[in-house]
Specification:
The protein has no helices and 20 strands. The protein is mainly beta.
C-alpha cells in the first residue's frame, strides 16, 4: 500500500480581470512513517487543471515542479470564470492526489459613457450637440478608478418622445482624452443615447440625455 500525500491549491487574485495574470500556487506534502507527520515533497511534477464554469471535463493547462518545501507556482492568464485544481500522479511509494478546486470569477473591466445634449430645451429645427466622455476602470477589485478610453467607436441613437424604439443617427470615435461630440438637427423632443459595445476585456455601457423642443 502506498503512503498518502496531500495537495493544496490557491488561485489569486479574485475576482480577476479578463487578461490579467493569475497565480496558481500550492503545496505537495507526503506522510513520513518514521515521523508520523506530513512534510514537503520536493522535486515532484504537479499538473495544473482548469474547468470552465459549467463545462467539463477539466483541461490541463501546465505543469509545475515543487521546491525544497514542496511548494509550486504556475502563472496563467485569466480568460473566463472557472475552477482551478492540481494533481500529483504519484510514485512507486507515494499515492496520487488531487487538490480541492478553487473557483475564480473572471470579469470584464467596467466602462462609463457620459452624455449631455445641449442646448436644452432646443429650438425646433436647430442644432443640438451631443457630447461626453468614455472612461474605463483600471481594475476590477477595491475602489474603482476610471481613466480616459481613447480611440474607441461609439454609436449615437435618438428616440423620439412617444415613438417606439431608437434609431442610430451617427458613429463617432473618442479622442485621445476619451471625449466625443456630435451635432445633429432636432425637430421633436426625445432622448439621445450614446452606446459603447464593449471589447473582449471591457464591458459595454451607455449614457443618455432627454431634450425638450420649444
Amino acid at each position: 500500500m502506498k503512503l498518502p500525500t496531500a495537495l493544496t491549491l490557491d488561485a489569486a487574485p479574485e475576482p480577476a480581470a479578463v487578461g490579467e495574470t493569475l497565480t496558481v500556487n500550492g503545496k505537495l506534502t507526503r506522510y513520513g512513517q518514521s515521523t508520523g507527520k506530513y512534510a514537503g515533497y520536493s522535486g515532484r511534477k504537479v499538473d495544473v487543471y482548469f474547468d470552465p464554469a459549467g463545462a467539463a471535463p477539466h483541461t490541463k493547462v501546465g505543469t509545475a515542479t515543487t521546491d525544497a518545501s514542496g511548494r509550486f507556482t504556475k502563472k496563467v492568464t485569466a480568460k473566463t470564470t472557472g475552477v482551478w485544481s492540481a494533481e500529483y500522479a504519484g510514485s512507486t511509494y507515494y499515492a496520487a492526489v488531487r487538490s480541492a478546486g478553487d473557483s475564480v470569477t473572471v470579469v470584464k473591466k467596467k466602462t462609463r459613457v457620459s452624455a449631455d445634449a445641449s442646448p436644452e430645451p432646443v429650438k425646433k429645427g436647430a442644432k443640438v450637440t451631443v457630447a461626453g466622455r468614455l472612461t474605463h476602470a483600471t481594475a476590477v477589485r477595491g475602489t474603482l478608478r476610471y481613466t480616459s478610453y481613447p480611440h474607441m467607436t461609439l454609436t449615437v441613437w435618438f428616440d423620439p418622445a412617444g415613438a417606439k424604439g431608437a434609431s442610430k443617427v451617427a458613429t463617432v470615435t473618442t479622442s485621445s482624452s476619451g471625449t466625443y461630440s456630435v451635432k445633429r438637427t432636432q425637430s421633436v423632443a426625445g432622448t439621445w443615447s450614446v452606446r459603447f459595445a464593449g471589447t473582449p476585456s471591457y464591458a459595454a455601457s451607455a449614457g443618455k440625455d432627454t431634450v425638450a423642443v420649444k
